[in-house]
Amino acid sequence: MSTARSRGLSAEIRRLRQATGMTMGDLADRLPDLSRSTINRMELGQRIPTPEETSALLVALEIGGEEAAHVLALSRRATESRWWEVGAPGLPRQLKSWIGFEQDASAITDWSLDVVPGLLQTAAYAHAIIRLACSDPDELESRVAARLARQAILTRDTSIEYTAILDESVLRRSVGGRAVMAEQLRQLQRLGDRENITIHVTPLESREHLGLSGSYAVAHFDTGEPLVQIEHQRSAVILDDEDDVRQHVSSISTLVEMAMTSADSAAIIEHTAVEMEG
């Protein structure tokens, strides 16, 4: 399964080889255990080299010091098993891939036309949403737990920059009942106070715009191009085509421009929470 870590590793291997002036054939000649086609798959991210194979590649490329240590660290991390890969039954394969990308992103922007994004949901709100498409009790609890576990990226020491742009209707839709929704709105307030989290609301009176075609998320990385995810009830689609990604990123800029400021957004979240609590 491709992750941002494996993509970063493949890009580093390709960059280092090209910097030496070697062809893949030249490199394969120095590595009897790795064929040219295998090296090609590694550089394309279709095969993740083991730490031992990465070490052999670095020796053949005559790369040492801090640069070699950096690439070896990428290799070890790229082959790690992580909780969503081994301990989250019921998660669609595409969603597992996206969780991996979330963990490695430097910035994420969520545009939501319908519900509070998963990274901001309370347990009760997540339960109310997920149970609509999941009738098995064990799978339901597993998926709720997985959704809450994903949220650790927002509060860990080396947290990413996260932006949520919510249509105003998201605040007013009483998911799970008024008490659940009030709790969810209060959570949005608390999270919006964090330095790495920004929440914008687009007003109901907004005119037609590209965001009306549906919700999506954009993940940016220190290494590699951005990715876009469109999540459905029980599946997800990840877009990596350059033109598709560029259009979605451009739409995000438009949505931020038409949205309320973060201060005004916080005020309307507060106002709606009071209404729900009343």
Which characteristics define this entry?
278 residues, alpha/beta, six-stranded mixed beta sheet, 13 helices, elongated
Describe, in plain words, how this protein is organized in 3D.
Helix 1 runs antiparallel to helix 5 and helix 8 (123-130) packs across helix 9 (137-150). The longest helix is centred in the N-terminal third of the chain and has 17 residues, at 4-20. The radius of gyration is 22 Å and the shape is elongated. The model is unreliable at 83-87 (pLDDT under 50). It is an alpha/beta fold and 278 residues long. It has 13 helices and 6 strands. The chain has helices at 4-20, 24-29, 36-43, 51-61, 65-78, 83-86, 93-104, 123-130, 137-150, 168-172, 178-192, 242-258, 262-277, and strands spanning 107-112, 161-167, 197-202, 216-220, 227-231, 236-239. A 6-stranded mixed sheet has the order 3-2-1-4-5-6, with helices on both faces. The protein starts with a helix and ends with a helix. 53% of the residues lie in helices and 12% in strands.
What is shown here, in short?
The protein has 278 residues and is α/β, with parallel strands linked by helices.
Give the SSE layout:
Blueprint: H1 4-20, H2 24-29, H3 36-43, H4 51-61, H5 65-78, H6 83-86, H7 93-104, E1 107-112, H8 123-130, H9 137-150, E2 161-167, H10 168-172, H11 178-192, E3 197-202, E4 216-220, E5 227-231, E6 236-239, H12 242-258, H13 262-277
Parallel strand pairs: 1-2, 2-3
Antiparallel strand pairs: 1-4, 4-5, 5-6
Helix pairs in contact: 1-4, 1-5, 4-5, 8-9, 11-13
